[in-house]
Specification:
This protein is mostly helical. It has one domain. 68% of the residues lie in helices and 0% in strands. The chain contains five helices and no strands. The protein is elongated and about 55 Å long. It starts with a helix and ends in an 11-residue tail after the last helix. 23% of the residues are buried.
Length: 163
Amino acid sequence: MLVAFPAAYLFGSACVDRFARATGRRRWFRTASHLNALGIASALAAAIPGLIDHMFVVPPKSSAKNPATDHMFANLSALAMFAFARAGRREEDQPAAPWAMAAEVAGVGLLTTGGWLGGTLVYAIRSASTIGMRTPANGASKRSARRRRRSMQPRSPNSTSIR
């Protein structure tokens, strides 16, 4: 679950930058700078398995291919915005340039969009990786797989049974 780290670090760097600017606490700009660096590094680390999944796991003509491509471009664009914002940092205890803070806001928007698209891939299209999961092909019983599939199906509004 690598995606939580870059999202938290990058979103945190934007929030801490705003807080430092609003309160005038110069040392917090250093914290925002460190969070930004950690976010960029962890995003690059998370992008590698994401690219592998996009190339080898998502079938080329499936309904998941377009959302997967949009997810990839949204996250890469967010990463580019935060890297661009990093270039706008002066010294560690100085506020970032206004255009750098605007790039962070755009990066947060793109990060949110990428996260929503990733959630759509996993929960709506069910394209989550099954590595390490127990499926009938790798050891779970067929009965438990049927039970799992049945529990994921939407219930009708007239249904009164409790599962």
